[in-house]
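Thought: the user wants the 3D structure for the chain below. I'll pass the sequence to the structure tool as-is, report back what it returns, then summarize two notable features.
Action: structure_tool
Action Input:
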Amino acid sequence: MLDQIEATILATLQTVFDQFGWAGVFGLMVFENATGITPSEIILGFAGWMLIERHALHPSLIFLGGAYAALGSAIGASITYWVARLGGRPVIEKFARFFRMDMAHVTRAEEQVHKFGTGIVLIGRVIPGVRTLISIPAGLVRIPFPKFFFATLIGAYVWCTLLIGIGYILGHEWMLISQYIKQYLPFILIGGLLAVSGYMVFHYRKQFSRLEME
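Observation:
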């Protein structure tokens, strides 16, 4: 049964990639981040093999593919953000029952976002199991949308580029991607921290320049 489901998913992804290429990756990432249903590890690992390695294309396309996927991720996450921001906890609780989401986790994440702000949104985008969840507390806390979108885009780019790159390197064995993610999770987190640091430097330098002009 599971093998049949897996075969169906892969056949669907292959059809989408054959017909739409990276635009298909973009659309799938919008859906994945808005619903949390389709795992990005499968989408992006398969894309790294099928759209780059299988056609013997230059590996620099990994970074272009990461941009397509990151933009789709940010747009999909924005949908979840606005649902949470406009609907509040009552709407999220209804969705939680539908998607079997633990509200206790949402509450804890909300506390972290309240405490650390945009930085926790950025780093949350590179942590498996937190990536799609982090948009909800960000919306509930009402983090300014431009800051949310920018932080999400940066974090998503790190995550998506990494998965596409691993899929490219593994080739036909791209389905081992989950094992590699567990093995290299510390490096992923370091990448996330570097992204956070870069964002904070950019943000505070911009604020400092604005104060000087005043």
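Final Answer: Structure generated. Residues 2-213 form one domain. Residues 61-99 form the longest helix (39 residues).
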